[in-house]
Amino acid sequence: ARSALSFSRMRVFVINTGTELLLGDVINTHLAFIARAIFPLGLRVDRQVAIPDGASIHQSLAEAFGASDILFVTGGLGPTTDDVTREATAELLARPLRRDAAIAGVITAHLERNRFAMTDRILRQADVPEGAVVLPNENGTAPGLYLQAADQRGRKTPHLFLLPGPPRELHPMFTESVVPILRGIVPSEHATESRIFSIACVGESVVEAAVGEELLAMPELELGYCAHAGAVDVRILGSAESVNQAERIITEAFGKAIYTSAGETLEAVVIRLLSERNQTVATAESCTGGYLAHRLTNVAGASAAFLAAEITYANDAKTRELGVSEQCIQENGAVSEIVARAMAESVRLKTGASYALATTGLAGPGGGSDAKPVGTVFVALASPSDPTKVQQFRFLSDRQTFKHLTTQRALEMLRQQLIAS
Questions:
Q1: C-alpha distances in angstroms, 92 versus 42, 54, 61, 155, 348?
Q2: What is the pTM of this model?
Q3: N- or C-end of the chain: fewer Cβ atoms within 10 A?
């Protein structure tokens, strides 16, 4: 990536509290979320630390106070004895904690609705440092808190945001309460526009060769690539004019290979396209073991377009459930174009779906041959009017990645069929 943008010089620190983060029991997703949320405002995270629950929060806050202009702290606002973020902040700022009657009422009502017993420790979540702005929490009991930057004991304290740990609480609070405050803090000239174009089944080097030189020549545009299994994201950031110009370049180069610029997953795009057309899909899977159906049903609203899945891992299951003849399998092998085609056509006929996808392959590490080495896979797409399409691929990877790459190809086959029809 190359940066020619002017970003705010405000130093941004993030402190993530939680022993579970350091033990590896929970993946820390907060940094990625916060970094993405503040980037369009012209802010970047300068430093991030993850610390255990308890006393270490006091030292971390003290260190960050003198070195940051904006400080985000996640976690440590709950009712247990190791939740001390609120108390440590009040002590460092020399601001007394006062119980907020409105917050206490919200907590009490929440407990009554869910039939939980009230304790004094739970009500600690209603204690607010003097002068703090309360950030409502619609998805939990612990509110967030904002304390404006101020001169404190001869040094300036940062704009301080104390936020809950659970992502389902933090994310909406950040979007609805924190971002509006930040807009009043950060000079507007630092704001940037950003777009991400996701391109399916194309390598990162191919994408860079097609658009990299032209985009890198544009002033005040930041360009970055992020490769995933079976997809590449092209990220552009800059002024509205430069971003619009870059979008035209990327769109002209890749056109229909771009499956989203709105952050959708490929499976979400497929479900949306099917739903818009009042069409449906079913799947028949061997080597992917239901992973294709899993991805589709992870999409909210999938029931409008996804009908059924047949997981026919064993050969006799292909015969029993899908009617693929034993002779066909014996003569061609279960991993073959003809078996993939038969699986797709059978499940489409059986379910009445508009489209059907089928996968059959050799995930490995054993079982390959000279004719069909490990990694060989056939993906079939049966359609309402066009002849069934079968594509052959070879993915040399671990089993999980193999399954993802196979389903990525299957979903992209269907997406291309939908946008062409």
A1: 29, 15, 8, 12, 66
A2: 0.70
A3: N
Task: Quote the tokens at residue 357.
Answer: 């996808």
Q: Which amino acid is at 391?
A: Q
